[in-house]
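ok, trying the design again with the full structure, not the truncated one.
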């Protein structure tokens, strides 16, 4: 019997790739946007439009991952997706036109969606092969570190770089990290194809059944519920908190710091109490965070929202991915891609519905009720997901 393989290099490689595409690709745009506006590269409206193109690319990438869900397909497409991220991030250092930047952010989003689905899926299948699935959630620590790293890079380079040059730190750091992360995953001892199972009846190829349909409907609520505070919390802080309060400038930093322990915490809770029960608790926690911003006055509500939502949304992602594979072990990567595609679709719907609400005369603060309703929807459907060991 061979020794159990070392988990740390594999989990670190997966976390590194998520750091690259999510931290240095997607989330770096959030702290960069105010400076790009100040430099005269973009207006606020153009910046919001460009962000939407990136979200659309993320959805396209997840749909492509749904098509390329087998291990052999992942091994072929994953390095190309990483190359697309590196090329588009480098190209962003050379363009300042809105049209060109929109195209690059669309392509960068496609690479993000592909890698965000395929890298954790490949690692989850490898962990399942070695009976170590309970460690799978630790891959998402890369998102947490990437969130903080992107903020630090933008802050430290401010005053040194301007305009399109502000993309250089993310571009240069992406190259060695993407190369190293892929080299580790390329060497995983995974069979090219799933061996046939000796059963009287072949496993179903359906994505939706009585077990998985409630999980899909629940995850739709998670996507819309988390995106509102994660997009608009700093703006709501400016409206709700007294001028000069530290939260006016630091609410996003609180969110970033709160994410750091969340993959370990929710991974552990899922291992102790079961993913279904832990997932229900994650919905309750996020709902409490959004309600805090709605019902508690000023800084206390904003702070609680930042901590509870920031410390939970990644837990919802990792627990849902793992539970989906438990429900349908024979099509884990395909289920993962379908769930991420649905999640990204409801992410797009959240800001759009907020815009409709604002055009009808509603306030940004009251739009958080949409997020609370979405999370309540998710919790109700989670109660219908069967518990599995």
């Amino acid at each position: 019997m061979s020794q159990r393989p070392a988990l740390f290099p594999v989990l670190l490689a997966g976390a590194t790739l998520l750091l690259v595409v999510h931290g240095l690709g997607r989330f770096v745009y959030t702290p960069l946007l105010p400076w790009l506006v100040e430099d005269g590269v973009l207006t606020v409206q153009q910046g919001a439009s460009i962000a939407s193109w990136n979200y659309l690319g993320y959805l396209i990438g997840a749909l492509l991952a749904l098509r390329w869900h087998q291990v052999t397909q992942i091994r072929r497409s994953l390095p190309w997706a990483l190359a697309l991220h590196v090329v588009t991030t480098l190209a962003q250092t050379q363009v300042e036109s809105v049209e060109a930047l929109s195209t690059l952010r669309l392509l960068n989003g496609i690479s993000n969606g592909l890698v965000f689905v395929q890298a954790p899926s490949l690692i989850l299948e490898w962990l399942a092969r070695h009976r170590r699935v309970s460690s799978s959630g630790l891959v998402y620590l890369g998102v947490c570190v990437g969130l903080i790293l992107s903020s630090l890079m933008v802050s430290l380079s401010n005053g040194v770089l301007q305009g399109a040059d502000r993309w250089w730190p993310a571009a240069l750091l992406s190259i060695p990290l993407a190369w190293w992360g892929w080299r580790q995953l390329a060497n995983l001892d995974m069979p090219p194809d799933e061996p046939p199972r000796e059963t009287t009846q072949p496993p179903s190829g359906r994505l939706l059944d009585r077990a998985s349909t409630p999980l899909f409907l629940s995850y739709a609520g998670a996507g819309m519920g988390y995106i509102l505070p994660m997009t608009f919390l700093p703006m709501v802080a400016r409206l709700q908190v007294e001028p000069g309060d530290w939260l006016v400038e630091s609410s996003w930093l609180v969110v970033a710091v709160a994410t750091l322990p969340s993959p370990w915490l929710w991974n552990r809770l899922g291992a102790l109490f079961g993913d279904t029960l832990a997932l229900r608790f994650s919905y309750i926690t996020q709902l409490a965070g959004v309600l805090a911003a709605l019902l508690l006055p000023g800084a206390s509500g904003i702070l609680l929202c930042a901590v509870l939502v920031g410390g939970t949304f990644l837990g919802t992602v990792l627990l849902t991915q793992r539970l989906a594979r438990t429900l349908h072990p024979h099509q884990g990567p395909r289920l993962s891609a379908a769930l991420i595609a649905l999640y990204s679709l409801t992410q797009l719907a959240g800001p759009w519905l907020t815009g409709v609400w604002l055009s009808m005369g509603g306030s940004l603060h009251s739009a958080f009720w949409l997020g609370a309703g979405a999370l309540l929807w998710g919790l109700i459907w989670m109660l219908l997901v069967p518990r599995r060991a």
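Keeping the full-length input from now on. The chain has 15 helices and no strands.
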